[in-house]
Every structure is written in C-alpha cells, then in structure tokens.
Design goal:
This protein has 679 residues and is an alpha/beta fold. It folds into 3 domains: 304 residues, Rossmann fold (3-Layer(aba) Sandwich), CATH 3.40.50; 184 residues, 3-Layer(aba) Sandwich (Rossmann fold); 129 residues, Rossmann fold (3-Layer(aba) Sandwich), CATH 3.40.50.920. The protein is built from 25 helices and 16 strands. A 6-stranded parallel beta sheet has the order 7-6-8-9-11-10, with helices on both faces. It has a 5-stranded parallel beta sheet with strand order 1-2-3-5-4, with helices on both faces. Strands 12-14-13-15-16 form a 5-stranded mixed beta sheet. Helix 7 crosses helix 15. The longest helix has 31 residues. The chain starts with a helix and ends with a helix. 54% of the residues are buried. The mean pLDDT is 97.
Length: 679
C-alpha cells in the first residue's frame, strides 16, 4: 500500500466528480467527495472483476443505492478507462453515457439503474440471493461478493427495513454494504429527521456492523477484510465521512460538512471551485485530467485484476472439464435459455380460477425449470404460488437449495429484490401478491421496466369479485395503472411491460408460456380469485386455439358477418360468451366474442389482423371489471365500453356481480341498449 498514491487517487476522483457537476451546472458533488476514499480502496484492492470482460458472470458486483452520486461512479470507472474525458465532460447531457443517475450499463461497470433511494441496495440483496442460489448448485463457483453503497436517505427510506430484515434472516454473508454516513441530507442535517441508532437496528436484523472513519484507508481495509471473512451475516460498514471533503473557501480555509454542498455545483456555494481543485491537486485549467501518478497506478491495478481473473477462469475451465453435465446446465442458466417446455401438458381442472390454473403451471415449472426463484408476500396459499412451493423448498440461512423465497409482508422490497436477481443473471425471478397490493410494488416495477428486466409478477384476486374483503382489497384502478406501462416505450423502443389477463385456465397456461418467453421486459399475470367458466373450444384443441393469445387478442367465438363484436379480458370474456348466447337465442343476433389478453401486444399486430378481431366501423362492445379506460383504446369512434367507475363493497362475489351488472343477463341488456342507441 502507498498512502500517498491512495490519497492522490481519492482526490483525483473528487476533482473529476466536482468538475462534472460544475460543467453540467447540475448534480451532487458533496457526497461524491465524501465517498471517494472508500470507492478507491474498494475498487483498487478488493473488487474482483475482469477489466477486459466487464460482464464476466463470476465477477464481484457493486450496487449503488444513492444514484445521485453517479459522478462518483463515473469518476472511479474513468480510472479504469471505462469512461473517456469527453464522457465525463458530457455528464447529464443529451445522448451521453453519463446520465444524471446511473443507468444499467454492465460493460462500463454500472450494475443497476438507481435513483429512487432504497431500491439500489435492495437490488444488491437480490443479486446476493441469486449468487447464493447458484453457488448451492455449482460447487462453490459463485463465491463472489456483492457490494452496496447507501447513504442517509437510503437508510431512512422505508424499503431499507424490509431489505435489512430479509438479508439478515437469510444470512447473506456475500453482501457487504458501505453506509456513507455524513450527517447531511439534501435539505437538512440528519439530526433534524432521525435519532435512531443505526448500528443497533442492523444488528437486531442479524447483520455484522463495523463503524469506521470513512476517510481512514487503514480502517477501510480492516473493515473490508473483516467483512470478507464473515461467513454467517451480511455486513454493514458505517463510515463517518465529511460532506464536501476537500472543499475550501477562496482564501484557502476549509469549508466542509455543509448542507449546501450536497446538491448544487461547488461554484454555487460559499466554497471556491478553483481553489478546491487546487487543494485536491488538480489543475483548474484541465480539471478532467487523470493525474499521471494515478494513471500509472491504475495501469498496474488493471493488470493485476486481469491476471487474477485469468487465474479464476482457469480454475472454472478445469471444473467444467471435470463436470461436463453440470457445466452444460450452468451455461444454460447463465445464457437465459429455457429448457424444452410444453405447457399444453399441464393438466387444468375445469372451470377453475385462473390463480388455480397458474398454480398448476407453477407446479410444472418447479419440476422442469431448475433456476427459478418464486417469492410471495406472505400469500403463497392465497396467490397459489404454493403450487411451486409444494415441489420445492424455502430458501433459508445456509441452505439455498430450494427455490421459494417467503418474503413476508414486504411487497416493494420483494419486487426490488427480484430486480436484483434478474440483474445478477442465471436465475428467473417470479414475485406474487394480491393485485390491489401492486400499488406497493409500482416503484420497483417501474425500475424493472426501465432496466428491461424479465421479472414475472403473479397478481391474483384481480377484481371486485374478491367480494367480502371489501373495497380495500378489490382492485378497480390497478389494471389501468398496469396497462399504462404497456403504452410506455423503453429505451429499446418496445412496450416497457407485458400485462396479461387470461380468460380461463387454458389461456392461463398460454399466458405463462408468453411470460417465460418474454426475456426483454417484465410481465404481469393478472389472475382471478373466483372460478371462471372455461372458454368452449371451437375445434379439437382449446390449448391450440388459446395460443392465438400470443397475438394479444383473438376471437374465442366467431361467426360470419356478425351484428356486433364483444370483447374483454379475464373473467369478463366468459361473461360476454354467456351474454352472446342470450342475444343469439332471444334476439336472433349474430355475435363475435374476443379475448384481448394484452392491448399493447394486440396493437403490435397488422391492421388487417386487428380488424379481423375487432372490426373497424362496426358495432363493438367492451366489458371490464376495472376502469373503462382499460379497453377504450380498442373501440374506435362508435364502440362502447362498460366498466366500473367506483370502489367496491363488502359482499359475496355473486351478489356484487348482480349489483354491479357483471353477469350475462345484465351485460346482454347493456349490449341491446347500445345497439338501440347506435341505430
């Protein structure tokens, strides 16, 4: 170790970070200055990765929680050559690779998109779970560490409670988190909002906690050594740091630890930007330069890391030679390729709730997909993910051979953890809860959509037909919220989420097939609590007919020259089939019925196909147990949608169907009224 070069490197990171913020006239310099010492020691001496293959599956991973400290990460990675001087100078600008908050970019070292505080370290815990899961299956190959970086705001954000509990309960000894504790928040000092004992809190959750001076390199090394030696607990390293470490006034006097240094350029504070650069050893005329001594040192660091990775690769190669069958399985896991599956072979009972149908599929997947982790928020026997659990086992401390995570009542935490599992790679994450509680999940669903992660959401009890549980448990607006994500494009130009509400048990099997094969975005499976009448097959195979759902929508009942086309998704499809039978029998009408499992997917089909299902300029009628907006994008200028524009009430589901007009008889009356109005 060389104290001089270590101090110089940390100061170089500080100078680069504040230069980025100053040039952009936007950003957060103070925290980056405080965290520079820890990041330099971690990256130069402890974090194991291959600089020539940043996406190497066996690398250590660093998950940033405090996304506003992006300048710290970009500055650090620029010392490895992952960002050019021009990249740093374009910080927060259009088209740059250095956005204001980090966006997942593994080839440059950015493991996760972060910004909403708390979710970053939750994703880190998810990655640690994935690593433990894989390590239990491949003879200690996945022994890498997951590092996290959190700040005062992230510790305060409520999700940290769920993350802390789960990580401690599972004994995630491969997770090491640095808490940059500088006593300063964006708008106040921390003592104005909190007086808790963070050490005692994390110790109560089962963590190892180490308190250090976050600027003392010897203490940082000792803490990291102790954390890496820990075999039973996750570790929290609480580093007391100074906000704006190294800032000075125009006269050269120190000006550190001030709240104003948090969230605006140094030049807009009482500190002097040029004098601060000089104090850090930088040249104000070329402040984006890497110091020559630091560049020489990091050239050696890169060579050492590359050599260490090569040695580990040789060990892995020898293991593969000795274990060809396991090696093949491991490569399949890491590639994301599924085994051969045939969900048409899943036996579905007649006229069951789609949550029950999903349970049957999950039982099949438990036996055929070995790299899946299913998680439920204390509802596995209600959301029917116990179909998977019955053929697997619960993840436990020192035993990750199972595939089921009992998350407890922590929907947001569970969903953010699933994002981390997906980011790690090699494992397929599934999370489940009641649809109404997806409200707790939305921030993490949104980040999954932004990061294009193939997480699967099982969302049951999908409508007011939850019945006796009353309005707190009856989804009304949730489907509209979820389907908005189908309308938002991700940065790849595709719909950011696939929302599927199947019409019966067989369509549920097809929906699961669609979800499993959707490897580029999250998928929401929206499932019923109550039993649903099966959609009648028009030929010899209902499953084969239901595969048309892969186009987003299809006719489940077709006749030539129909007088009207009815459409819905989920349980309302069966309701409309019942209404169609009444209209044909009592009113001599010719009726088509369509199941539109996903509007977003349906609208990606050709215009000809769309109009073959929902004809343009003809009578069309939609029915939804949620807000009418769920289907209004499909009705054209003359169609009509009947939905629910109010909260539910506590009563048996059948009573609510009658009171709200969601039985075949009531639907038929609405349809006849619409036909009369259209004449």
């Amino acid at each position: 170790m060389n104290n001089k070069i270590d101090n110089l490197a940390a100061d170089n990171i500080r100078a680069l970070a504040i230069s980025m913020v100053e040039k952009a006239n936007s950003g957060h310099p103070g925290g980056a200055m405080g965290g520079a010492d820890f990041l330099h020691i971690l990256y130069s001496e402890y974090l194991n990765f291959d600089p020539t293959e940043m996406n190497w599956p066996f690398r250590d991973r660093f998950f940033m929680d405090a996304g506003h400290l992006s300048a710290l990460m970009y500055a650090q990675y620029s010392l490895f050559g992952n960002y050019s001087k021009e990249d740093l100078q374009n910080f927060r600008q259009w088209g740059s690779v250095t956005p204001g908050h980090p966006e997942v970019d593994v080839l440059r070292g950015i493991e996760n998109t972060s910004g909403p505080l708390g979710q970053g370290h939750a994703m880190g815990v998810g990655a640690a779970i994935a690593a433990k899961f894989l390590d239990a299956r491949f003879e200690s190959l996945f022994t890498h560490k997951i590092y996290g970086f959190i700040t005062d705001g992230g510790v305060q954000e409520e999700i940290s409670q769920g993350v802390g509990r789960i990580a401690g309960h599972l004994g995630l000894s491969n997770f090491i988190m640095f808490y940059d504790s500088n006593d300063v928040q964006l708008s106040s000092m921390t003592d104005e909002v909190s007086s808790e004992d963070t050490t005692m809190k994390y110790e109560a959750w089962g963590w190892k906690v180490i308190n250090i001076d976050g600027h003392d390199h010897a203490q940082i090394r000792k803490a990291l050594d102790d954390a890496n030696a820990e075999t039973e607990k996750p570790t929290l390293i609480i580093g007391k740091t100074i906000m704006g470490k190294g800032c000075v006034l125009a006269n050269g006097d120190m000006y550190e630890g001030e709240c104003e240094l948090h969230g605006k350029p140094i030049g807009d504070t009482k500190a002097d930007f040029n004098q601060t650069l000089i104090n850090l050893g930088a040249n104000p005329d070329s402040s984006f330069d890497t110091y020559p001594e630091v560049q020489d040192y990091y050239t050696q660091v890169i060579a050492t890391k590359t050599a260490n990775a090569a040695a580990k690769k040789a060990t892995i190669a020898a293991w593969k030679t000795a274990n060809p069958a396991l090696a093949q399985k491991m490569e399949m896991f890491l590639s994301g390729v599924l085994p051969d599956l045939d969900l048409s072979q899943v036996v579905q009972k007649a006229n069951v709730a789609t949550r029950e149908a999903s349970s049957s599929v999950l039982g099949y997947l438990a036996e055929n997909v070995e790299n899946m982790i299913v998680s439920s928020a204390d509802l596995s026997n209600s959301d029917k993910t116990d179909g998977f659990l019955k053929k697997s086992s619960v993840l436990q401390k020192n035993n990750f051979k199972g595939g089921f995570l009992q998350a407890g009542v922590a929907e947001l935490t569970m969903t953010a953890i699933a994002n981390g599992i997906a980011l790690h790679g090699g494992v397929i994450p599934v999370v489940a809860t009641f649809f109404v509680f997806s409200d707790y999940m939305k921030p993490a669903i949104r980040l999954a959509a932004i990061q294009e992660l193939p997480v699967k959401y099982v969302l049951t009890h999908d409508s007011f037909r939850v019945g006796e549980d009353g309005p707190t448990h009856q989804p009304i607006e949730q489907e509209a919220q979820m389907r908005l994500m189908e309308k938002i494009k991700n940065h790849s130009g595709h719909q950011s989420l696939l929302a599927l509400r199947p019409a019966d048990a067989i369509e549920t099997s097809v929906a699961w097939d669609m979800a499993l094969n959707n490897t580029t975005t999250p998928t929401a499976l929206i499932l019923s609590r109550q039993n649903i009448k099966d959609i009648p097959a028009t030929g010899t195979s209902r499953y084969q007919e239901a595969t048309e759902a892969k186009k987003g929508g299809y006719l489940v009942k077709a006749t030539s020259n129909p007088d009207i086309t009815l459409f819905a998704n989920g349980s309302e499809v069966a309701t409309l089939i019942g209404a169609a039978e009444l209209l044909e029998k009592e009113n001599n009408l010719k009726v088509n019925v369509a199941s539109i499992i996903s509007e977003g997917l349906f609208k990606q089909q050709s215009k000809d196909y769309q109009e073959s299902v929902i004809p343009k300029g003809k009578l069309v009628f939609g029915l939804t147990a949620g807000l009418p907006v769920n289907l209004e994008g499909l009705i054209g200028d003359s169609g009509k949608v009947v939905g629910l524009g109010h909260f539910g009430y506590s009563a048996p589901a059948g009573v609510l169907d009658q009171k709200f007009g969601f039985n075949p008889e009531s639907a038929a009356k609405e349809i006849l009224s619409y036909i009369q109005e259209s004449k």
